[in-house]
Structure formats: structure tokens, C-alpha cells
């Protein structure tokens, strides 16, 4: 049995000789708190020790230096918190920071979902988490106020902030499920609610003349990308990652891979003509759409180019490539296409179509119904 030392008070510790091995005070079976005064140093620190039946040996955890803020009572509280985490099999040495949790989430998305889904999350975290002070924060110590301050400092639209917050929350919840942090900690991010106004329908719609004006105000690679978005309603990321071998000219079909998986869509005549031109003389693994310098498009490379073309065409502020996806869906639905076909074409669910575009479907149905002779 370990010898008991009086380390509970300053007077009890002052006569203990410096040594590498801590002076241990037993709290309960297999659990100890220790006081260490290293030889040749004035530094004094606290350490916790617990017996692991699984490993058949003791585990140790440094608690911090002795100070007015870390007296024996505070050291005991820190030790108890560590004992609780170890008893719950919380593996804090594997995923320690917010950025660690986000990187682990990207890996999990790649395995459980798709490479495209992982890529989308990775790019989002690169812009907002990695190499930031918030990303470096310990999972065990983040608080709701810090999460809100990070979210509010993103300089994004309410919708963009909410989507980023959702992705980070998913990463933090995965850390809880994988026992990298105490489940009680999840209350900190659960208490951070989405910004109001962030879930509005995307109301910025370009009609035919506006879409043609946007095309006329662009040239080169960005012209091709804008035209591809207009004619397919696909996400920009799906289009810029499409390779020559994903295009079947004989059947007029294009296979796209994105965050919702892989789908093969038919191309309208204008879209087939565009992709036929883009595919000319390209090898099977070459990208169909590239930048003017021949390099692959990277996420958001196109933002400024689209904005400049929109300003030149005197279009409303806020036009982006997603505006063209929204315009495609809106035009398809109001032209009489059924929701299932549209959902399959653009790679989304019927639920999302009905949530964001159900009002258009109802309006179009009303117009068609008005033409039916019932009496």
C-alpha cells in the first residue's frame, strides 16, 4: 500500500523533499492525487493517478501547477473530472481540439457518406476552423458564448453561418459519440441556435433575359461554367469535378458526383452541345471544365468572376452560381415538370423541393387547373 503523505495543506507540503516521484494521497480505491516538487526546481505541480483494470497498470494525468487558483481542493476537482472521463472511456488524447474533431468528421464522411461530401466539409472547415483560434480550443473547454462569437465573426450571410454551424455541430456530436469528450459538454453547442432569417427560401431568381445577359457579360472559362449551371441546375462543385469519361455522348447522359452521391442525368439539347464542345480532344480523365489557365477549378475561384459578370449585366446584388441552380429548379417546376424528375436532375430530395419550392408547384397546379373545364 502506498504511504500516505499530508499534501492537503501548504504547511503539510512545505517539508516534503524534492523528488521525481509524486507524494500520493489516496482518494479512494485505485484513485490518487499527487504532489510533485522536482529536484533543482521551485516548480510544484499536481498529478492524478488511477488504476486501469483494462491495462493492468496505473494511468496518470497532469493537472497543473500549484497556485492560488489551483490549491488542493481545486486539484481534487480536476482529478475527479478526469476519473469520470476515464470511467466513461472518454479518449481525450485522440481528438483534443475543435479542429481535431472537424478533421475526424471529414474522415468519417468520406467513409460513411462519399468523397464529395467529405470534400465539401473539408473546404468549409479550411475556411472557418483550421488555423483559427476557435479551432485550436479544447473540446472540453469550449463554451456556448465562444461558439456564438466564432459564428458571428464569420462574415457570412445568415444562411451561410447556419450551414457552417450545422457542420461544426455535427463534428462535435461525432466527438461525443466516439467518446472524445464528455457527453455533458454537448449542451454548450446545443444551446447555440441558428441565426434568424438563415433558412429563408432562396428568392433571387433570374428570368430568361437575365440569364442570357449574365452569359453575354462573361467570357472564357467562367462563361462555360455559368452556361453549364444554367443548363443543368447542378451544383458548381459537381460540374467542375466532372471528367470526360463521365459524359456519354451517344446517349446524351452525364454522370455527376456530389454531396448527395452519384447520379446520371439526361442533357437537354443545348447542354449536350455545350458538353460536346467541352469534351473535344480531351482524354478520359481530363476535367470537362477548367479555368482559363487550364488548371482545375478550386472552391470559390469563380465567386469574383460571377460577381463581376452580374454587375456588368446590371443584375441584382447577390447573384452567384447557386442563383442559377435556384433559377433552373424554379423554371423547371413552373414549366410543368414534376417534383420527382426535378429532384433527380438536381440531386436533392423531394422533401427539400417541397420545403423550398412547394409554393411554386401549388401555383403552377392552380394555373393548370384553371384551364380544365369542370362544368
Describe the model.
The chain has 375 residues and is α+β, with helices and mostly antiparallel strands. It has 3 domains: 10-87, Double Stranded RNA Binding Domain; 98-190, Tyrosine recombinase, N-terminal domain (DNA polymerase, domain 1, Orthogonal Bundle); 208-370, Intergrase catalytic core (hpI Integrase, Chain A). Helix content is 47%, strand content 13%. The protein is built from 15 helices and 7 strands. The chain has helices spanning 10-14, 72-87, 98-112, 115-128, 144-152, 158-177, 186-190, 208-216, 220-232, 236-240, 269-279, 303-312, 321-334, 339-346, 350-370; strands spanning 19-28, 31-37, 44-52, 57-65, 247-248, 253-258, 261-266. A 4-stranded antiparallel β-sheet has the order 1-2-3-4, covered by helices on one side. A 3-stranded antiparallel β-sheet has the order 5-6-7. A hairpin with a 4-residue loop joins strand 3 and strand 4 (57-65). Helix 3 (98-112) packs across helix 6 (158-177), helix 8 (208-216) packs antiparallel against helix 9 and helix 9 packs antiparallel against helix 11 (269-279). The longest helix has 21 residues, at 350-370. The radius of gyration is 29 Å and the shape is elongated. The chain starts with 9 loop residues before the first helix and ends in a 5-residue tail after the last helix. The mean pLDDT is 88.
Amino acid at each position: 500500500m502506498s504511504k500516505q503523505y499530508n499534501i492537503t495543506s501548504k504547511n503539510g507540503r512545505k517539508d516534503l523533499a524534492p523528488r521525481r516521484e509524486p507524494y500520493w494521497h489516496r482518494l479512494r480505491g485505485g484513485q490518487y492525487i499527487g504532489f510533485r516538487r522536482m529536484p533543482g526546481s521551485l516548480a510544484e505541480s499536481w498529478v492524478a493517478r488511477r488504476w486501469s483494470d483494462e491495462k493492468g497498470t496505473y494511468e496518470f494525468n497532469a493537472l497543473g501547477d500549484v497556485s492560488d487558483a489551483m490549491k488542493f481542493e481545486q486539484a481534487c476537482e480536476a482529478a475527479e473530472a478526469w476519473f469520470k472521463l476515464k470511467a466513461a472511456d472518454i479518449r481525450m488524447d485522440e481528438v483534443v481540439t475543435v479542429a481535431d474533431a472537424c478533421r475526424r468528421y471529414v474522415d468519417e464522411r468520406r467513409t460513411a457518406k462519399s468523397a464529395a461530401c467529405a470534400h465539401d466539409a473539408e473546404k468549409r472547415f479550411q475556411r472557418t476552423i483550421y488555423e483559427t483560434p476557435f479551432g485550436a480550443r479544447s473540446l472540453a473547454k469550449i463554451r456556448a458564448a465562444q461558439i456564438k462569437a466564432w459564428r458571428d465573426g464569420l462574415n457570412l450571410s445568415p444562411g451561410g453561418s447556419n450551414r457552417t454551424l450545422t457542420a461544426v455541430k455535427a463534428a462535435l456530436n461525432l466527438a461525443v459519440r466516439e467518446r472524445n469528450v464528455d457527453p455533458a459538454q454537448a449542451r454548450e453547442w446545443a444551446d447555440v441556435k441558428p441565426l434568424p432569417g438563415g433558412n429563408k427560401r432562396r428568392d433571387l431568381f433570374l428570368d430568361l433575359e437575365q440569364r442570357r445577359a449574365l452569359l453575354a457579360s462573361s467570357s472564357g472559362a467562367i462563361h462555360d461554367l455559368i452556361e453549364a449551371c444554367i443548363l443543368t441546375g447542378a451544383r458548381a462543385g459537381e460540374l467542375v469535378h466532372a471528367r470526360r469519361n463521365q459524359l456519354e455522348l451517344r446517349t446524351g447522359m452525364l454522370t455527376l458526383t456530389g454531396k448527395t452521391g452519384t447520379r446520371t442525368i439526361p442533357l437537354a439539347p443545348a447542354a449536350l452541345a455545350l458538353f460536346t464542345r467541352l469534351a473535344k480532344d480531351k482524354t478520359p480523365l481530363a476535367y470537362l471544365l477548367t479555368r482559363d489557365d487550364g488548371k482545375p477549378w478550386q472552391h470559390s475561384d469563380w465567386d469574383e468572376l460571377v460577381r463581376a459578370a452580374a454587375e456588368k449585366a446590371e443584375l441584382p446584388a447577390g447573384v452567384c452560381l447557386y442563383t442559377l441552380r435556384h433559377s433552373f429548379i424554379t423554371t423547371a417546376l413552373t414549366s410543368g415538370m414534376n417534383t420527382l424528375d426535378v429532384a433527380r436532375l438536381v440531386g436533392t430530395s423531394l422533401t427539400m423541393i417541397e420545403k423550398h419550392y412547394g409554393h411554386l408547384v401549388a401555383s403552377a397546379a392552380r394555373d393548370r387547373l384553371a384551364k380544365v373545364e369542370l362544368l
